[in-house]
Structures are given as C-alpha cells and as structure tokens.
Amino acid sequence: MPIYSSDSDDLRPSSSAPLRRFFTHEKPMHAILGGGKVADILLWRDRTLTASILMGFTIIWSLFEVMEYNFVTLLCHISMILMLILFIWSMGAGFVDWSPPDFRAIMISDSTFRWLCGKFNSILVKIYEISSGKDLRTFFLAITFLWILSVIGNYFSSLNLLYLGFMCLATLPALYERYQNEVDYLVSQGNQDMKKLYKKFDTEVLNKIPRGPVKQRKKY
C-alpha cells in the first residue's frame, strides 16, 4: 500500500512503498482496452474524433430525450434532408463546375459488415465460455452484473442507459489513466476499510449469535 506524506493534499504516493494496482496485471490502460482504434478513442488519443463522437451521441440523446423526437420522424427528416442535398448537388453540377455526387463514396463497405459480424460472434463465444461452467466465479459475477443492470433499467429508459454507459466509457478510462496512482490508493484504502468493517461485524454480531450443539453422526 502506498505511503502518503502528511503535508501533501494532492494524494500523491511516495516512492518508498510499492503501489498496488487496481488491475492485477501491470499492462497499460491502452493495452487493457485492446490497443486499437477503440482504445485511442476511449483514451482521447485523438481528441478531435473522440469529441466529435461524444458530441454526436449528445445531439442524438438531446433529440430523443429533450426534444422528444420520434425515431421514425427523425429518420424521415434526415432522409429528406439528405435527398434534398443530393438533388441540389446533382442539379447544380450541370450549371456550376461541380462533379456530380459519387454514390460509391457513401456506400458501406463489406469489411465494415465483416467487422461487425466478427465482433458479434466474439461476444457469442464469450457468453458461451462463461456459461459453460468452467469458471464458476466469472459465471456468478456475470449473472449478478446482469441482474443489477436489469434493476437499474427499471429506473432509466434504454436511451438514457445507453447514453450513460457511453459517457462512462468515454470519460472513466481516460480519467483512470491520468489519475491511476490516486485511484489505486483510494481503492486499496476502501478494500482495507471494508475488511475491517466485516471483521468488526463478525466479532461483535456474528460470533455472539447462539449456536446449538453440533450433532454428530452415528457410526454404524
């Protein structure tokens, strides 16, 4: 556990004691998140792209939750605006020195669908591995997490829950990477406090509960 100096208010650990990491392995946060483009986005390595995605999700959330837009209405309005832009572009190309719109530029490539299918298949494989019973601890943790998520879902709409989850993904990993030592220290302190609290509860409450004599089995 790290040792902190008493005259410091910024919770910076001293170098005299090893720091116990929140994650058991010593991999950097970028490697834990996969080390690809997704990790760069979540850790704000490309601030322009991350800010654009965050702004896009915020606009979508505002349209549905704040302005109470209907999904079908929004989809129709976006389609009409896109068709009007393409119509003006195509008609104006004959009068102005413009190149007509290329339909192939807005087509979704096959590699994108293959990537999405690969991610979906990897999720199915992970669910199968957890449900196979090889690791009971992971299985019960997954069941508990899904149950807690279902309880939380009763108090939030699906869009609010997705937006909250995205905001956590877009902020918490970057904050942890920046303040890793401070977070690890607080988690370690909280873990020790919980152990002390349970030990006190076990000593003062559980051990004082009267227990009947243990019946011994008859040996034949």
UniProtKB/TrEMBL annotation:
Domain Reticulon: 38-220
TM helices/strands, residue ranges: 47-64, 70-89, 136-156
UniProt topology in membrane: Multi-pass membrane protein
Subcellular location: Endoplasmic reticulum membrane
Top-level taxonomy: Eukaryota, Viridiplantae, Streptophyta, Embryophyta, Tracheophyta
Broad class of where this protein is predominantly found: endoplasmic reticulum
Pfam families: Reticulon
Protein known as: Reticulon-like protein
GO cellular component: endoplasmic reticulum membrane
